[in-house]
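dude i think i finally got it to work??
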Amino acid sequence: MKRVVVRHTEKDDIPALIELQQRVYPQIPSWSRRNLRHQLELFPQGQLVVECDGELAGCASSLIVLWDDWAGEHTWREITAAGTFDSHNPEGRTLYGAEVFVDPTLRGAGLGHALYEGRRRLCRAMNLKRIIACGRLPGYHRHAAEMSPELYAQKVVWGDLRDPVLGFQLHEGFSYCGVIENYLPEDVESGGHASLIVWLNQDYDPERPTVIPEEIEL
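look at this
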């Protein structure tokens, strides 16, 4: 059995993360070293990596936002401030998932689940209300000529079609909320569109403030 460990991202991880992201998404521009360093400076608690048998094998990047500012149509570039996370707002109640990827040669090893569970631990530890993300729809290009991205996503939710990303997110307990069109124009497989998903923190206490401790046990 492979040993899977989730931990916070460190600066020394940056070169390996960029190389892995380029392998996972060869048609989508990868993070820059400058942006990754800036993310760690702004919100180190929200940046996670997963190791498999001691080797870096994936990551999950996030920031905190005031969701009322973004609940309408938005793009990945807008909500992440072009990947800098300058839109991070510690006064918010929403943990926004900006990126998740895992080594494609290790799919099925539980790495994605481990990263999602790490995010849920972050959400609970900081007393945030929810996790919201916009996920790729990589299977959509096969059906784009015959249906809208909204209908495609609905058919995945209904069980009539299979999508590797949205299907996984539903399995992880996220709820489907709709489609954000032109969310990431560079994503050819998804036609640029993404599914809006949410996970609600059942331990959230509205009487308590958001807390961002120096260290969060994962």
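The chain has one domain: 4-200.
im so relieved honestly
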